[in-house]
Amino acid sequence: MKRLFIILAAFAAAALPAAEKFDLQKKTEAAQKGDAEAQNEIGEYYADGGGGDFAPNYELAVMWWETAAKNGSTKALTNLGAALFGGNGVLTDVPRAVKIWNEAAKRGDPDAQFFLGAAYCNGKGVLRDVQTAVFWWERSAKQGNHRAQNNLAFAYARGEGVSRDLKRAFELWKAAAEKGNLVAQTYLGLCYFTGDGTEVDQKKAVAIWTSAAEHGSVESMRYLGIAYASGRGIRQDKNAALQCFIRAAQLGDEESRKAADKLRLDLSMEKAEKNSGSK
Predict the structure, then answer these.
(1) 193/208 Cα distance (integer angstroms)
(2) What pLDDT sits at residue 11?
(3) Can you give the pLDDT at residue 2?
(4) Contact indicator for 39, 76 with CB cutoff of 8 Å
(5) pTM of the predicted protein model
(6) Is residue 90 within 8 Å of residue 123, measured between CB atoms?
(7) End-to-end CA distance of the chain
């Protein structure tokens, strides 16, 4: 397994449900009456650019989040911390962002717990402390936060901040993968491929990587290429493997570029040997 993988996004406003049409007028009326959650949602609306209808207005978003936070919205605290961390609509202030996340995390917000854990793991705004990072990811993961589940899985897989436990890592990657986390899907596939934390099922690994690759996972493209090249979990097809490596390399994966170069050479040599033998 690779080194502990950490995600620390610069901005993390909650996305509005796709099926729900945002009624700005109605929300504004509620916000003007002191509804903290409506105030927070208006901030998210402006940060999201109205779902892509206009350019994000982070300054306006921050104004609403500050108002919502003062009125007791925990989610607004989390969003405000993200804005401060990334310098979106406000000057970057990482220590203040972490302080705000700490308050929201104590109130039980799973996103704040995830971001606070990432800050501790990376030493951003606080002294690096992986055990404290794991503490907050555990709480976030229990609430179903797939990013916390994914990071926590890496911690268990590597034994960083917690005792090494491959079975627990597998379970966490599985939980995060089921929520659509592409990184978790890649490593869930790797668990099935190698038998780390679960029984070997290379066909299942290939199926997971195929799906993740179709959704843009570069690492899954590479591992799928390895499966095709070796014939493990799927019928050997070196040309299909080459295409997987090329796709991943085009998306910036250096390991796939090297694998593609090596496989091209191998295929050329095999072709030359075949032609030589047919004479």
Answers:
(1) 10
(2) 41
(3) 45
(4) yes
(5) 0.89
(6) no
(7) 47
**Rounded Cα distance, 183 and 4, in Å:** 12
pLDDT for the residue numbered 21: 81
Select from 163, 164, 154 the least CA-distant residue to 187.
154
**What is the rounded radius of gyration, in angstroms, for the C-alpha atoms of the chain?**
23
Q: Which positions ≥6 away from 266 have C-beta within 8 Å?
A: 238
pLDDT > 90: what percent of the chain? Answer: 87
Q: What pLDDT was estimated at residue 275?
A: 76
Query: Considering only CA atoms, which of 72, 79, 82 is closest in space to residue 37?
Result: 72
DSSP the chain: --SPP----S--PPPPPTTSPP-HHHHHHHHHTT-HHHHHHHHHHHHTHHHHTS---HHHHHHHHHHHHHTT-HHHHHHHHHHHHHTSSS---HHHHHHHHHHHHHTT-HHHHHHHHHHHHHTSSS---HHHHHHHHHHHHHTT-HHHHHHHHHHHHHTSSS---HHHHHHHHHHHHTTT-HHHHHHHHHHHHHTSSS---HHHHHHHHHHHHHTT-HHHHHHHHHHHHHTSSS---HHHHHHHHHHHHHTT-HHHHHHHHHHHHHHHHHHHHHHHHT-
96-130 pLDDT, tens digit per residue, is: 999 999 999 999 999 999 999 999 999 999 999 99
All structural domains of the chain = 1-15+23-164 (1.25.40.10), 190-279 (1.25.40.10)
Question: So what's the pLDDT on residue 5?
Answer: 44
Low-confidence ranges of the chain (pLDDT < 70): 1-20, 277-279
